[in-house]
């Protein structure tokens, strides 16, 4: 197909702040990806936008399979706070409130609509 560019699971983004490998970044209000390598400020880098990743979560937070997770740009982690934060994926492996467990497995690019 003449108009095909790429599959879209890895996207080049030029972040407005430095992003460490494995850390998420929200470009604008809707393009979220996890840095594949360290990316310097204002330098194009590769970000994974689809697939399952382990990512930082808010400490002392239980997340169930199927829970939507939202990006907290201040703390550079996901949580379950939908107010003023962007949904970036869905939890695929439950995590309980456990001391020292500060990551969660999520499916990127999976967004569930808010119930009405």
Share in β-strands: 35-45%
Rg calc: 14 Å
Helix content: under 10%
CATH fold-level topology? Virus Head Decoration Protein, Chain: A
Report the top-level CATH class: Mainly Beta
Name the poorly predicted regions: none
What is the end-to-end distance? 39 Å
* Overall pLDDT score: 89
Strand runs, count? 9
Number of domains: 1
Total helices: the number is 0
Keywords summarizing the entry:
mainly beta, four-stranded antiparallel beta sheet, 116 residues, 39% strand, Virus Head Decoration Protein, Chain: A
Task: Write the SSE topology.
Elements: E1 10-13, E2 24-27, E3 31-35, E4 45-48, E5 51-56, E6 68-72, E7 77-79, E8 86-93, E9 103-108
Antiparallel strand pairs: 1-4, 2-3, 3-4, 5-9, 6-7, 6-8, 8-9
General description of the model:
The chain is mainly β and 116 residues long. The chain has a single domain, classed as Virus Head Decoration Protein, Chain: A (Beta Barrel), CATH 2.40.300. It has no helices and 9 strands. The strands form 2 sheets. A 5-stranded antiparallel sheet has the order 5-9-8-6-7, with no helix packed on it. The protein has a 4-stranded antiparallel sheet with strand order 1-4-3-2, with no helix packed on it. Strand 2 (24-27) and strand 3 form a beta hairpin.
């Amino acid at each position: 197909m003449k108009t095909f560019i790429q599959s879209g699971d890895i996207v080049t983004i030029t972040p407005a702040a430095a992003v460490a490998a494995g850390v998420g970044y929200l470009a604008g209000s809707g393009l979220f990806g996890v840095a594949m390598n360290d990316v310097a400020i204002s330098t194009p880098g590769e970000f994974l936008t689809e697939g399952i990743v382990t990512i930082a979560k808010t400490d002392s937070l239980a997340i169930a399979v199927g829970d939507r997770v939202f990006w907290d740009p201040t703390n550079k982690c996901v949580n379950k706070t939908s107010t003023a934060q962007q949904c970036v994926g869905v939890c695929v492996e439950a995590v309980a409130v456990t001391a020292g467990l500060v990551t969660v497995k999520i499916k990127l690019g999976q967004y569930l609509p808010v119930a009405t």
